[in-house]
Amino acid sequence: MPTEVISRSPETLVTALPYELNYMTEELRKRAKTELFEDEDTRVHSLRLLKTMLKEENDLMWQDDDLFLLAFLRARKFDVKRAFNLVKTFYNVMGKHVELYHNFNFADVERTMTENCLGFLPYRDAEGCVILIISTARWNPYENSLADVMRTLTCGLLHAVRSPSTQVAGFKVIVDFNGFTLRHLPHVSPTYLWLFAEALQNCFPARFRAVHMVNEGHLFSYIWAVLKQLLTKKLRERFHFHGKNVKKLHKYFSPSILPAEYEGELPPFDNSDWAKKMKQSAAYITHVYSYGYKKHKKNKKEDLAVEN
């Protein structure tokens, strides 16, 4: 498996796959076959069948892009009916959140990215998963609302899931509640907790393998009391709580791919390289938001007419 050397010492040689990986490694091809029941014939047949089903969804303008649609098929282990339902849910949820995705302007995402409150680590873990960092300490809710953060998060997921390796290996998330205070809590609405839960389990074409909470204090209990009600038992079991002991992350991730604030060997978390990659994909991400159900597009136009 091709890897990049990221840590070298006289005793050890640590290697890892990079975040940006636009091909499928041999190991991940094998996992796609054993875990997702994927092979060439299945891919071709499933894509053809999914497109046929989507063409019959008359009210839906959908993105006829094989790599985009494969994300839905892989997320549902090539069960075409479930993948079809996932596509419909994806567009329905996107259409209902007008404040996030209508009149999408990538400049809003750029502004939020400069806050460095979220982004992906430069290297994947031992299972090939990309690792998303969300840091509340760097989030100023008066500069960037939770809606801004959710919009940027969605764009980041869309960018990451373009990689076939990410479609197979999946995502892991580290949510750092260090610095989360009473000034943040009123901005965490149940609506966006629901959207976060939906993205994890029902509406986004990705395999979410684990969510790790660190530095979660007593205020987090209010968030978890709501969030856990929205998650299936299967998803709840993928949440791990580490408190102030960030070194517990080393049980799940090699220190060689973690930033310094988690007692890792990399410099402190900085999303600037990831932000550059995101900007290069701005046209693609904007293109994704041009699709959806006609009824939602019509409702948006009517709402704008009323506002004007």
TrEMBL record:
GO terms for molecular function: phosphatidylinositol bisphosphate binding. GO terms for cellular component: membrane. Residues 119-270 form the CRAL-TRIO domain. SMART domains: CRAL_TRIO_N, SEC14. InterPro entries: CRAL-TRIO_dom, CRAL-TRIO_dom_sf, CRAL/TRIO_N_dom, CRAL/TRIO_N_dom_sf. This is Clavesin-1. It comes from Stegodyphus mimosarum.
